[in-house]
């Protein structure tokens, strides 16, 4: 499962030895042409909605509803972007999303790594019992909890706060499970050597286990960040103040409320889509691995 | 929920067990201590406060007439549960959820498979295909729905413009009770198929090339290689994807809510069970009743997971 991004499939040894650096020669057959054409067609179909959104965002408002539909803006303008940016909401939502997703990711990593280490490398009373309880927690869909959680948050005074949005998202038993499985696979020799040298558990975790776990930490971190960034239902319920909303909630509830301004809506959508798309383009490998590795479980 | 044995880290996982002598020496030092408890404490507290407690509180609330509109609540026994069983809106929203799952799951599996097979065969433009198919998965739901509500507009929306260009009649995608759920399903397929695509692509790239070369030498046609070798080798991945996808589809809410402006669509034709929970609890303010429906939903998810797990376990044995 870890070879998602390696486009170069292992070549047979003989050929690899003969011409190690040359790409394998591709035979052009009717079949391969058909495959390429269908793949490109499907890719273009999949990109069309995004392309259409970008093109719409560049049109003056009057042009967006013109019939018949024309693809390219007749008079391209950045007016929609100017209006959206001048309004200021979207920047605030981007800041909120960045803060909340970062807090969720860091807390999830710290809290889940500590728990996973304890389950994997230490023995304490009630260990297997507690682990079974957490595993059972994986089965609980967050959607089941929204009503009582809102009730609880109201009582705790956490509605309309960053903590109220972030904390419930940190409880990810599945991440404890994923990390524990990885830690289990690290041979005891390493950690026992450090223990014999007098290192405490925290020291073993930080200087022995974590440096050997960077791939899984990246996977868990990226997956958690993407999930937190795009989470809708809980942040939607936990915030009523537009100043505290995340990108999905603000765009979903407030943006539409300004009336039907298609160019502006699409400009907002483009800006709202950009952060993760840019991250994806820069770190395609890591994002793909992170999402598949952590999302599989 | 974990299924794949081969997802463990490649390097560390495969190293051999320690020397037996060292092991017994080490085991003598490994005694029960309380240190580990300090390490699990932070997660345990968060788990207790934000998962276990609301889960139990919700169960209790489902036996009360608790409302967001007033402070006090009294015990009403099974009244909410009885009402739920005779409430046609519960069954209607449940039907919407199941219908959506039935429409979206096959599409999300088959299209993902087709994308992965094509991408795996194309040698040059792999990065472009991966980007096109996967990028929508990274969009926040509100971006997705803003774009698709715009695409579905009558008259100047792109989807209808394309239909009329090829001579087909316009469809009132989001205003017709017969098409609104289909419209939500199409949007969902576009948005989330990229994740399944990645899982399939990873599985395909795990199939060693010599398997195909051997088959080709034996004279197997490309079609035979696909149906006799590739698809059977992907069976575990397919079972996994179907399992993940069905549970994900049963949890439909976000996009259906946003695409219908929270109305559930004409005749509530696109209001899933979570939508009804939301409406009962946060619009109707009836927290007790909403909690009871939440538990019905929970039961359905558990049943679906158990059935799939059993089916999958059997398939895994056969493979």
UniProtKB/TrEMBL annotation, chain A:
GO terms for cellular component: plasma membrane. InterPro entries: MetI-like (IPR000515), MetI-like_sf (IPR035906). Residues 1-23 are annotated as: Disordered. Keywords: Cell membrane, Membrane, Sugar transport, Transmembrane, Transmembrane helix, Transport. Belongs to the binding-protein-dependent transport system permease family. It is a multi-pass membrane protein. PANTHER family: ABC TRANSPORTER PERMEASE PROTEIN MG189-RELATED, ABC TRANSPORTER PERMEASE PROTEIN MG189-RELATED-RELATED. Residues 94-283 form the ABC transmembrane type-1 domain. The chain crosses the membrane at residues 31-55, 93-117, 129-150, 162-183, 204-226, 266-283. It comes from Spinactinospora alkalitolerans. This is Multiple sugar transport system permease protein. PROSITE patterns: ABC_TM1 (PS50928). GO terms for biological process: transmembrane transport. It is found in: Cell membrane.
UniProtKB/TrEMBL annotation, chain B:
It is a multi-pass membrane protein. This is Multiple sugar transport system permease protein. It comes from Spinactinospora alkalitolerans. Residues 94-308 form the ABC transmembrane type-1 domain. GO terms for cellular component: plasma membrane. It is found in: Cell membrane. It holds the Pfam family BPD_transp_1. Its main location: membrane. The chain crosses the membrane at residues 37-60, 94-119, 131-152, 180-202, 292-313. Belongs to the binding-protein-dependent transport system permease family. Keywords: Cell membrane, Membrane, Sugar transport, Transmembrane, Transmembrane helix, Transport.
């Amino acid at each position: 499962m870890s070879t998602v991004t390696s486009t170069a499939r292992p070549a047979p040894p003989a050929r690899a030895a003969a011409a190690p650096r040359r790409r394998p020669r591709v035979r052009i057959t009717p079949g391969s042409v058909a495959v390429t054409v269908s793949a490109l067609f499907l890719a273009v179909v999949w990109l069309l909605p995004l392309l259409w959104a970008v093109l719409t965002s560049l049109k003056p408002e009057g042009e967006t509803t013109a019939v018949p539909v024309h693809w390219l803006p007749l008079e391209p303008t950045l007016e929609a972007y100017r209006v959206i940016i001048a309004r200021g909401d979207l920047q605030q939502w981007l800041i909120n999303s960045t803060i909340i997703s970062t807090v969720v990711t860091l807390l999830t990593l710290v809290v889940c790594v500590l728990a996973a280490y304890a389950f994997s490398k230490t023995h304490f009373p009630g260990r297997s019992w507690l682990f079974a309880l957490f595993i059972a927690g994986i089965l609980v869909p967050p959607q089941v909890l929204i009503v009582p959680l809102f009730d609880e948050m109201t009582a705790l005074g956490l509605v309309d706060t960053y903590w109220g949005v972030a904390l419930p998202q940190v409880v990810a038993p599945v991440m404890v499970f994923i990390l524990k499985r990885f830690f289990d696979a690290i041979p005891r020799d390493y950690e026992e050597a450090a223990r014999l040298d007098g290192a405490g558990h925290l020291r073993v975790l930080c200087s022995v286990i974590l440096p050997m776990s960077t791939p899984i930490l990246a996977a868990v971190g990226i997956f958690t960040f993407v999930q937190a960034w795009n989470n809708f239902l809980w942040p939607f319920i936990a915030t009523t103040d537009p100043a505290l909303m995340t990108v999905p909630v603000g765009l979903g509830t407030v943006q539409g409320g300004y009336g039907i301004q298609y160019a502006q809506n699409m400009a907002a959508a483009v800006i709202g889509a950009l952060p993760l798309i840019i991250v994806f383009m820069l770190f395609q490998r890591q994002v793909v691995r992170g999402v598949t590795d952590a999302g599989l479980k | 929920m974990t299924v794949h044995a081969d997802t463990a880290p490649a390097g560390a996982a495969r190293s051999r067990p320690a020397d037996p002598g060292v092991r017994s020496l080490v085991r003598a030092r490994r005694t029960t201590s309380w240190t580990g408890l300090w390490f699990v404490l932070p997660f345990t507290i968060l788990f207790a406060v934000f998962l276990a407690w609301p889960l139990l509180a919700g169960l209790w609330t489902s036996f009360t007439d608790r409302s967001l509109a007033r402070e006090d609540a009294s015990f009403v026994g099974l009244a909410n549960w009885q009402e739920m069983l005779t409430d046609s809106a519960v069954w209607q929203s449940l039907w919407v959820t199941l219908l959506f799952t039935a429409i979206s799951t096959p599409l999300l599996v088959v299209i993902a498979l087709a994308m992965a097979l094509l991408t795996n065969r194309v040698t040059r433009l792999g990065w472009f295909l991966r980007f096109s198919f996967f990028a929508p998965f990274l969009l926040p739901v509100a971006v997705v729905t803003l774009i698709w509500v715009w695409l579905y507009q009558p008259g100047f929306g792109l989807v209808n413009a394309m239909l009329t260009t090829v001579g087909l009649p316009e469809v009132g995608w989001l205003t017709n009770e017969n098409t609104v759920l289909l419209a939500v399903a199409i949007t969902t397929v576009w948005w989330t198929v990229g994740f399944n695509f990645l899982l399939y692509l990873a599985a395909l790239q795990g199939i060693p090339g010599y398997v195909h070369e051997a088959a080709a030498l034996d004279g197997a046609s490309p079609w035979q290689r696909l149906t006799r070798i590739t698809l059977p080798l992907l069976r575990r991945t397919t079972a996994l994807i179907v399992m993940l996808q069905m549970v994900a589809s049963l949890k439909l809410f976000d996009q259906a809510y946003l695409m219908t402006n929270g109305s559930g669509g004409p005749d509530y034709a696109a209001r899933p069970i979570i939508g009804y929970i939301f409406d009962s609890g946060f619009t109707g303010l009836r927290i007790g009743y909403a909690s009871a429906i939440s538990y019905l939903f929970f039961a359905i998810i558990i049943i679906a997971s158990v059935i799939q797990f059993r089916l999958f376990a059997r398939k895994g044995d056969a493979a």
